[in-house]
Design brief:
The protein has 277 residues and is mostly helical. It contains nine helices and three strands; from the N terminus they run αααααααβαββα. The N and C termini lie far apart (94 Å).
């Protein structure tokens, strides 16, 4: 019966600060491994070799955490990035609070600051190219008027209902919102959203698809034509080479035949040259 302990998944031990420093320095020197964007010069096999190289570096540290394979090293790097992003997000939230206060309780050490330079800013603080909608506040002068005679009429009810400030969202960028005593934000123009792309009609899309298909067909036809000329020329060269080989073999056979005839004549003359004793 198999030991149940053997079926348990082995967990890698935690790494030390020295090993974290080695990992961060290694990733800083191999930025292509950080981005994981494969290309003609950086393939999946190249990334695997780098992870294996990093594995051999960190397991050579005496007294450090042990890793059994390069997948555990990659998982360790992912956990380190996740921790740094979480800490930096907490620091950003603390600094954006109002009311002052002391310095943030969460800080980054030297290794974590190095990792922070390798992490895209958009994953922590968001994409700066994506702007929020502009907000305009409209304050009506009649909202501050209260009834003086204590009576409640239709106009008083209307006035009381307008005590709440009217908040108007700028949903149509490029057009001004008509309102009385409107106070606009100074950066409203900088919050303009990019115009959405116009959706192409089915006819235009079909026409583009046909053009692409025709171009691909022309390229395939040209490729077939080039291959046909290549194989035709190759066949001619093979036929010429075969003829030369045939002529060579025929000439060789003729020489061997003549050599045999000469040897036969020599053998016939040997008894006359050297008579038996």
């Amino acid at each position: 019966m198999a030991d149940p302990k053997e079926n348990k998944k082995e967990r890698s031990s935690s790494i030390t600060k020295v090993q974290k420093k080695l990992i961060s320095d290694f990733m800083d020197n191999h930025r292509e491994l950080v981005s994981c964007q494969f290309s003609a010069t950086f393939s999946h096999q190249s990334a695997k070799l780098l992870w294996c190289e990093l594995l051999s570096i960190i397991i050579s540290v005496p007294g450090g955490g042990k890793k059994d394979n390069w997948q555990q090293v990659r998982k360790c790097w992912q956990d380190m990035k996740k921790t740094v992003k979480k800490k930096q997000s907490e620091i950003n939230k603390y600094c954006s609070r109002t009311g002052g206060g002391g310095p943030p309780t969460t800080t980054l050490d030297g290794v974590e600051e190095t990792i922070l330079t390798l992490v895209p800013t958009a994953t922590i603080s968001g994409d700066p190219n994506i702007l929020e909608s502009a907000v305009f506040f409209s304050f009506d002068n009649t909202a501050n008027k209260l009834p003086t005679d204590g009576g409640v009429g239709e106009e008083d009810n209307l006035t009381n209902s307008m005590l709440v400030d009217d908040v108007v969202l700028d949903t149509d960028i490029g057009q001004s919102t008509p309102s009385r005593n409107t106070t606009t934000m100074p950066d409203a123009k900088s919050c303009a959203r990019p115009e959405p792309k116009k959706k192409l009609s089915k006819t235009v899309r079909l026409s583009k698809t046909l053009n692409i298909s025709e171009n691909m067909l022309a390229k395939c036809s040209e490729k077939i034509r080039i291959k046909e000329a290549y194989y035709k020329k190759k066949l001619e060269l093979l036929e010429a080479d075969s003829k030369r080989r045939g002529a060579y073999e025929a000439e060789k056979l003729e020489l061997l035949r003549r050599n045999g005839v000469l040897l036969e004549q020599i053998l016939q003359r040997l008894p006359n040259v050297c008579p038996p004793h």
